[in-house]
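Listing S7. Sequence submitted for prediction.
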Amino acid sequence: MKLKNLCVIIVVLCFGCLSAQTKFKVESLNFEGLKKTKASFLTRIAKVKAGQETDSTIVITDIERFKRLDGIAFADYKVEPTGDASYRITYTIEENFSIIPGVRVGQAADDSFSYRFSAFEFNGLGRNIIFGGFFKKEVFNAFGVFLEHPYLFTNKLGLGVNYMDDSTQQPIFFDSNAINDGTDYVFTNKGFETILFYELNFNNRFEFGVRTSEESYVLIPDEDVESTNSAEPNIRRTAFRGSHEFVDLDIEYQNVSGFRNLFETTVFSKSNAFLQTDFIINNTTQYFKRIGSKGNFASQLQLQFSNPIENSAFAPLVIDNQLNTRGVGNITDRGSVIVALNSEYRHTLLEKGWFVLQGNGFVDVSGVQRPDANFGDVFSQNTTRVYSGLGVRFIHKYIFNAVLRFDYGINVTGNGANGFVFGIGQYF
């Protein structure tokens, strides 16, 4: 037993010395714990290559890269000397269960019963391919199908396609001073999108998408709606989307630390008198910090801009429960600029095997520039919302994105009601 312990200590000390060296030769690269994920796929995207020189920082980079894959819950490594100044590297993998059915029920905008069924495979063919779809009824029927292969062509270049036919009941606020009294429309957006994925390096990723769609607003008859407010705009156009994501996160099951920034620009091929959107710019910055062994602070700043909307109430950006302000309700305001800050403290209350119960306290702040308003009105008294509240998370550590969240937001500013929010996955 003493001899075995001595050998382990020698291996650890050897790799500790290697950490201070520039390079060392890899005799072989191996994987343990794989059930569904293909070793050939991980070998393809790994930066450590058998027969080549590497260093400890690249090994650690591979571990973080694997932990970001949807099909992997956790990853670690071990290094063993093989003689001739070479080393055998073994990556130890804990996989996620990656075929995820989803069911969501609730109350729709017209107070009717709503539901959403979905099924997604997040590690298709063991190569991190995502495919699946959803069907929902929230007043109106809607569905979508998705297929994404981020590493289809090379270990940096991939492709995705999707189709959505989505219809929702949305309020349009013709009187910006009376946003509690909106006119209800059926908003339909359907079309195909093709996406090119490019991973420049470990921290930087790009997406380039082209979507051709038909958009329409159809008035829902109401005897109280005046004919002057009954515009029903529609348009067929192409959207060109480009995004850059910088990621520097350390993920350990439900705990996250680090920084992430997503910058996205969408340019539209045409507009009209009512649907005036020519471009939308979005920048989302996220910061996470571990606090002790059970705490996790998380913060997110969202900045959304479109070209100014004049003489039209059909603004493209919305204030919503699931997008930026918990507790506020489904689409309670619209505009051409939105600034939202979300901060929360997550605390692990119970962790036993695969199950985690997490408590959450949050504060969400948002402001919006309404149509025909000035930029300085984003945080005016009528447009600023502050919601604070508590929530719980039920987390399965080994099923991808298996987080059921329940939040209750309390209105602090007085220009709205309190609200309950249910969702799948962390809020951000």
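Caption to Listing S7: primary sequence and predicted structure tokens for the chain studied. The mean pLDDT is 89. Residues 322 and 427 are 8 Å apart (CA to CA).
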